[in-house]
Amino acid sequence: MIETSLFGDLVVELPQAVRLQRLVGAVRAHFGCGAVGLLKADGDSLRPIAVDGLAHETLGRRFLLAQHPRLSAILASREPVRFPPGSPLPDPYDGLLDQHLGEPLPVHDCMGISLFLNGSLWGALTLDALSGDVFGKSARDELVQMTLVAEMVIRFIWLEEENRRLRAGRIVQDASLPVSGGDDEIEIIGQSPQLLVLLHELDIVAASELPVLLLGETGVGKELFARHLHRASKRASGPLVQVNCAALPESLAESELFGHIKGAFSGALGERAGRIEAAEGGTLFLDEVGELPPPVQAKLLRTLQNGEIQRLGADQPHQVDVRIVAATNRQLQDRVREGHFRADLYHRLSVYPVQIPPLRERGNDVLLLAGRLLEINRTRLGVRGLRLSPRAETALCTYPWPGNVRELEHVISRAALRAISRGADRSGIVTLEPELLALDLPDSELLSPALSASLDAMPAAVNVPLKTAVDAYQRQLIRQALADCDGNWARAARDLGLDASNLHKLSRRLGLKA
Fold this sequence. Notes:
six-stranded antiparallel sheet; 19 helices
């Protein structure tokens, strides 16, 4: 019985992602359908958090309810909603089913049901069958029973997270299942172990008042992690004020940060509070803090030491209650040795340094992020469907991403525009090939993904750690073997010369399986 297996999971300590993946996998096996999706309501959209039978990139997508009438209909009903073959409503999963990647879905049967947590709408469970007349009345009745199990699993996960937060001294203010993401402006997408460990670390340090220094390469999204830190802190109800230190003119930097009084300088016609005062009771985020001019560094040190600021031209300082989070892509120790950054300020800012991993070290997170960007561009360009070909997925996972997430955003946007400019049909499923991505990869990566290519013949990516390059190559080989074997893991293991259990373990480590 599916209920028995899922109830058994509740007495075992498992990661959230594993619980949810087992849930959708069990639902798919029970109904024998082509795909199952578990989606969480998030404002005016639904966010996939576990899928089975759908492309991995689906987890990064967001489905706006205004654009997806099937999903809207499911959320509007407390009973199962069926969309029989021939339904005129567009299917949100066009081009995303594993068995029909990049193709409009053939005649098929679909149903879904809304899910509730603590009496409030939580999300939806969707099922797609690749043949007609699969979901009759008995199947819909079974889905009602299955929903009770799904809601119990969701509630159990929520209770686990609430308990962890209470132990950390933080109060859960809503009944939402914690997953990566949130509002578009602060969304962090990914399921890699590196990212999950980082988010857990930020949640712990958020409860303190310690200054935090976010370190990482250009484009890794330091601003998003600063916002996550603020939202997870006790100051979440206060303001988050961001300052791009690199964009501050040296002549105005002191006034911008600390404010000024009337007559402090030519053009100061009245008093003006600075950015630090604007962050009273909240968080001040100093992006590219290594670019601060030396005179401002001295005054910022005083703020960190004593909680005091002094407006430009004022005689007396006054107290402020502000937490400072700083970020830099520079090696501040080098700036200190070169005399461009104060050593005492560096030590004050880096009480708790946090290293944000580059995109090339986050495994399959690149596909989730690409899925989100594909959905954004699909809406922006008015395309029915926009997805990656299997070769394009391999190219994205192999490329070293020197510009990180910001570069990925530009690559996906350019590729989508290229596809449209070259005559792609907006009313169909537009598939992006590696040539459209225009990544700087060896030709063998783009044009010859054959399994027989040897590791020695594969040119190493520039400035990529050996482990990262090997992991990327292993992912490529496993994907190709699975494609050649029609998704049969046992056959793929034999072709790769591996024991099946070892292939499953390796795939989980590489992020190819939950």
